[in-house]
Amino acid sequence: MFEQPMWRTFLRQLLRVCEAEGVAIVLDSADQGGRIALGEGVPLAMPEAAMREGRVYAGEELDGAAGGLRAVRIGGSGLDLTMAVMAPQIPGAEIASLLSALVPHLKVALQVLAAIERERGRASVSAEAARRMNFGWIAVDERCRIVDLDAQAERFLERSGALRRGPYDRLFPSAPAIDRQLTAIVKAMAGDRRHRPRAINLSHDPWIDILVAPMRVEALAGDSKAVAVIYLRGDRSSSADRHEQLVDLFDLTPAEARLAWSLAQGLSIAEAAEEHGLTVETARYYSKRIYAKTGARGQVDLVRNILTGVLALA
After folding, report:
1. For residue 282, what is the enclosing H or E element?
2. Is 281 helix (H, G, I), strand (E, B) or coil?
3. Spatial CB neighbours of 39, under 8 Å, sequence gap ≥ 6
4. Which residues form a coiled coil (predicted)?
């Protein structure tokens, strides 16, 4: 199942054992409406007639099929498999006996394949969600060398100056103080797998955070023995871009948009006023207009409306 093309070795062995002119498998997915055709030897015209599961059919029983053909259908877990063998030189009873013996094994293989496809689908949805949230992960060894990472983290390292891949695949934060902090945390986790996770802010504009946690997924450790996994979460846009998006989305003035973004980052009215050179009274006046335009009933609502709405996908 893991070969490309799938099941090539099995089909070649079946062709040889049956001394067949051609062998073929057709996979039909009830869930996805897809069809995969695999074959070895002379191409076969696969039967289109309805077939009872597990019963071996002779070509004479199937509309338009050749006399030397034997076919069987196996179903389960949303997948249907039809296997056919064209071996006119071998007694049909021998081929039918072999196909019947293969049925339970192929049924198990179908169940495994269906489970793999379900997990592949779930992983695809999870990966898309992580991409939209600009979330990724990097596994590192005790020297902060990259052992493994996902596609989102790879893109992050290519585009962000806050964190980069250095010589010998070492992970380098741009700020020396953060580099020392990260190195110390990873070293501590190498000595104690029960070490508590630690959060570090890499950048305020755009906002980028990492969470460093002990490695507990052995499959990601690899031969280099990763000791920690670094979860990345960052904003793709600068504050200036976010201000423009807020103006477009909620019809805010530029001054209101700047204040709204600061409030959404968790700053208090007084802190946001100081950041933008406003008096507290002016900031309060702006905040009332912001809440009215965004439909927020307070700062918690404002955070939810801005950070979990469509702006989060921009």
Report:
1. helix 280-294
2. helix
3. 11, 22, 23, 24, 25
4. none
Please enumerate in sequence order all residues whose Cβ is within 8 A of that of 309, keeping only pairs 6 or more positions apart, or say none: 249
Q: Does domain 239-313 have CATH number 2.60.120.10?
A: no
CA 222, 135, 122, 113 torsion-angle sign? negative
* Token pair recorded at residue 288: 């009332």
Strands 22-29 and 79-86 turn out to be: antiparallel
Q: What is the pLDDT of residues 23-52, one digit of tens each?
A: 999 988 866 557 889 999 988 887 777 889
Q: How many helices (H) and strands (E) does the chain have?
A: 10, 12
Token pair 């199942």: residue? 1
The pLDDT value recorded for residue 105 is 92
| Neighbour count for residue 136 (Cβ, 10 Å) | 23
Map out the domains of the chain as residue ranges.
8-129, 133-234, 239-313
- Write down the pTM of the prediction: 0.54
Q: Phi first, then psi: what are they for 18, rounded to 5°?
A: -85, -5
Provide CB contacts within 8 A for 155, sequence distance 6+: 136
Residue 38 phi, psi (nearest 5): -125, 145
Looking at the structure, give the CATH architecture of the domain made up of residues 8-129.
2-Layer Sandwich (3.30)
Q: Which residue has the higher pLDDT, 168 or 159?
A: 168
Give me the pLDDT at residue 30, please: 64
Identical topology for domains 133-234 and 239-313: no
Q: Per CATH, is 133-234 categorized as 3.10.50.40? A: no
Does an H or E element contain 23, and which? strand 22-29
Residue 212: what pLDDT? 95
